[in-house]
Amino acid sequence: MTTMLDLAKLKQELQDINKKIEDALTTESSQLSFLFSRQAELQEIVDLDNEIYKLKQKLEDATVLLESEDQDIAELAKEEVHKLQILIDQKQQQLLMKLIPADPNDKKKCNYGNKGRHRWRRSCSFCERSI
After folding, report:
1. How many angstroms separate the Cα of 65 from the Cα of each of 40, 56, 57, 70, 83?
2. Separation of alpha carbons 121 and 26, rounded Å
3. Is-contact 107 127, C-beta < 8 A?
4. Strand partners, 121
5. In angstroms, what is the C-alpha Rg of the chain?
6. What are the backbone dihedrals phi and psi of residue 62, each rounded to the nearest 5 degrees, phi first?
7. DSSP 8-class letter at 105
8. What does the longest C-alpha to C-alpha distance in the chain come to?
9. Per-residue confidence (pLDDT) for residue 90, from 0 to 100
10. Mean pLDDT per segment of 10 residues, for the chain of length 131 residues?
């Protein structure tokens, strides 16, 4: 499982990239393309981490309601806790998948994806596949 230190490093890297992008006039255009793609990648990770944090806060609030003397509120809280636990697990799985580095030698991954843009070309310059 990832540590808070790893996520803190990624958040710091995202801040550094954002600063470099702001200083775009001093950045080379070839480097800018890399910075934008890395920024998008890191932003997804940071957003997932923030979402998990918020869900955990909601889980704590719902857990407090479990001890309510009102049976209806306790039952609703029990359902909410169950839903939140499932959602947190799903988000943590997504986060772990995002943290796995992409294989730089994997040429099957195409920027076009399944958008159907391949059908007008004989080959894809992005994934280097013959079509």
Report:
1. 38, 14, 13, 9, 15
2. 36
3. yes
4. none
5. 21
6. -70, -35
7. T
8. 69
9. 96
10. 71 87 67 82 92 95 89 91 96 90 60 45 48 41
